[in-house]
Recover the amino acids of this structure.
């Protein structure tokens, strides 16, 4: 007999796919990436906010990686990251399931990977004027300049990955008549009640948040030794 997840009111022919932490992560990431992009284009004093937004993005990514192991069913990497056989089955129309399909999983991994690379290189980058990433003292000026170039190249790659991601969402909505956005807003999708996501409770959430906070704390330069004090100036002798 097919029954819903314990403690969850499941409508008939509906399944709870995306848990609240996953949905908050998704939309918070959208807002922060847009903010980081705009602040980078503005430049100047806005670069301070660009750095802060980059730290926040890094924290979100650390949370998502942790949640990919301890979160609820469809948020776990082990559930949606499959091999070539699953991708072939999907392309043949033989795949059935909830959550990310095998091809969509590649899009998710690409997006997370590019964002992680951007956040990491941003910690060592500079804008040649007044702003430096939080960990620039670890690499020095010359290497920071080269990493900054990589950071700018990754921006172009990110725009491509985001365009493909949005394009896939539009394709599914227009061609396959399958709305991928609504489940990420409500958490629910068409399916059997017994297929509702399980796991990812309060303890798992707390552990993922602690990992995210630790990542932000370390990336902010908190572990770096304090800078040496400025040399004392001697009063002129008369």
């Amino acid at each position: 007999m097919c029954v819903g997840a314990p403690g969850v009111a499941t409508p008939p022919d509906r399944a709870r796919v995306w848990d609240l932490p996953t949905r908050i992560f998704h939309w918070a990431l959208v807002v922060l990436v847009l903010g980081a992009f705009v602040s980078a284009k503005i430049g100047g004093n806005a670069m301070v906010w660009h750095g802060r937004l980059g730290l926040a993005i890094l924290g979100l990514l650390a949370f998502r990686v942790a949640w990919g192991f301890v979160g609820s069913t469809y948020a776990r990497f082990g559930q949606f990251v499959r091999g070539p056989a699953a991708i072939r089955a999907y392309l043949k129309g033989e795949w059935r399931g909830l959550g990310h399909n095998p091809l969509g999983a590649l899009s998710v991994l690409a997006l997370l990977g590019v964002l992680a690379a951007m956040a990491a290189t941003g910690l060592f980058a500079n804008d040649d004027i007044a702003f430096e990433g939080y960990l620039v003292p670890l690499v020095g000026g010359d290497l920071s300049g080269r990493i900054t170039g990589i950071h700018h190249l990754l921006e172009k790659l990110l725009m491509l990955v985001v365009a493909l991601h949005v394009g896939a969402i539009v394709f599914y909505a227009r061609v396959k008549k399958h709305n991928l956005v609504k489940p990420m807003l409500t958490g629910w999708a068409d399916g059997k009640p017994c297929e509702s996501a399980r796991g990812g409770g309060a303890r798992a959430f707390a552990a993922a948040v602690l990992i995210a906070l630790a990542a932000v704390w370390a990336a902010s330069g908190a572990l770096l030794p304090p800078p040496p004090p400025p040399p004392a100036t001697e009063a002129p002798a008369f």
